[in-house]
Amino acid sequence: MSQKPGLTKRRPFQPTPLKRRSPVPPDFEIAQEAELKPITQVAEELGLLPEEIELYGPYKAKVRLEVLERLKDVPNGKYIDVTAITPTPLGEGKTTTTVGLSQALGAHLGYSVVTCLRQPSQGPTFGIKGGAAGGGYSQVIPMEDFNLHLTGDIHAITAANNLLAAAIDARMLHEASATDEQLFDRLFPKDKNGKRHFARNMWNRLRKLGIDKTDPDEMTPEERSRFVRLDIDPDSITWRRVIDTSDRFLRAITIGQGPEEKGMERKTGFDITVASELMAILALTTDLADMRRRIGRVVIGTNRKGEPIDADDLGVAGAMTVLMKDAIKPTLMQTLEGTPVFVHAGPFANIAHGNSSIIADKIALKLADYVVTESGFGSDMGMEKFFDIKCRYSGLIPNVVVMVATVRALKMHGGGPKVVAGKPLDHAYTEENLDLLRAGLGNLLAHIGIARKFGVPVVVAINAFATDTPAELELIRKVAVEEGGAEAAVVCRHWELGGEGAVELAEAVVKAAEKPSQFRFLYPLDIPIKEKIEIIAREVYGADGVDYLPEAEAKIEEYTRLGFDKLPICMAKTHLSLSHDPNLKGVPKGFRIPVRDIRASVGAGFLYPLLGTISTMPGLPTRPAFYDIDIDFETGRVVGLF
């Protein structure tokens, strides 16, 4: 096994043997039958010191950021991103492939490896999608912890987000009923010696306003008025409350209907927590000080003069950071075969950038030979944002893209019958049909082409299902290499066999990772907003052009005026098509992208154009997954998660 310089504390890795059965049992049965290493052993094998982890029970731990300072001179390992073709609503096994590849690298080929994954939201877990720990014999365990509260990061984000929401409404209420002098007296109460003081969280607003006083009493009446009166325009407020539950009835609500808030009613709503800008900040931050700066820059709306108001203006950013101070530490877990996993952050890929955290990746790259991470949805979604947003802020250079493809998805793109979650697949997907498959292969070629635009080698992972035939699998393999230019295309059976079923994939990835990196961004940051949007639309989606609705035009003008135009672009669109229209399968041609609005996540550090209707609060179906979830009172185990 390889040993990095500076990691002499690492002890030999002991793979956990799988208890495979045939046919493959349900995911939760496999997970609950699994043998778990103590998390202290996982940490020690990885090269973490005892003082660098904080235990959350016997099988998970937080990793302290101090490890980055200790290992700052250690060279980085190889950086692998797992993405996919345009998926069916069922998903194509991207997380399962990520885990299976890691198990192959670590438990079968003897490399040190870390898997970096997002934390799933409880909304989909209890709704229609189910859990996100992988599947079959390629899972993260304990699966129940992974899919539920884990170490509380999402709850911390919920608390911080809603503290800011409460601060906004409270400030507007108090300003509405007080004079400038009354506000000044309340914001700067005298101490027992009759002295006023600036609170810690007031200094950033003072600097923003250009007020250089150190004693509040020395401020002029004009300075006092500018400081104490934010004058927030209620119609400009974009900050919403969040909860980590799918609840469609909270999408639009009216607040301020209590007797003490008479006259302060306004319409707002809830998002699901993982859609909060704070989740994107957690994923893109590089250290605690950077997270505090980013939270302070969160823009919640404007004042009546059109000037942006942020969390530092409200004086709440420090308290929000305190609520998230433990959430910034990645959570260490393990796969079924005992390889280490970092679980950290969980931003949506349709509205945010859809990748796990920079911090987890940075720590992992110092500890391991190979770091396998995963981007949400297809290469047009999470992978493009991984490269153009995450890699810009991290400075990390990817070595390989693994492109997950399935026979069923390619048949769908070839014109197969509609695939609906919860309904049986049509016979077209379970019986050999080379013509239908061949008609859909353009989607795979398009996604390989997207990855290659960034200069990154591509290895195709053909995630095999029991109903796939050898001829179908060989057709995909041949076309991916000979027509798509992939370095390799490998049939994988990790769901059925664990890491053993992905050894050939791992070998192909190792070989591809040795190629010199030619990585490049798709666009520079210093070009106009529209130009960045149009490059993505043309080069990634294959659109003929972009049409902007009046609201989007107004936002582009406003954000350029405010200096936000140098931020990267995070397109918010459907994951079910290369285009903006989920009904356009395969490789759509002859379409234009409509941009109906653009919003700013200044703290996270991106602008997100809305291409169609994007829901930030899912709803529960008629038959949610929670019907199956309960506790077995004899064993104390959770049952029904999948």
Description:
This protein is of the alpha/beta class and 642 residues long. Helices cover 35% and strands 15% of the residues. The protein contains 23 helices and 24 strands. Strands 1, 2, 3, 4, 5, 6, 13, 14, 15, 16, 17 and 18 form a twelve-stranded mixed sheet that branches. A two-stranded parallel sheet has the order 7-10. Helix 12 (288-296) crosses helix 13, helix 15 packs parallel to helix 18 and helix 18 (434-453) packs parallel to helix 19 (470-482). It is globular, with a radius of gyration of 25 Å. The two termini are 34 Å apart.
Strand content: 15-25%
Mean pLDDT rating: 95
* Straight-line distance between termini: 34 Å
As a whole number of angstroms, the C-alpha radius of gyration is 25 Å
Low-confidence stretches: none
Quick structural overview:
With 642 residues, the protein is an alpha/beta fold.
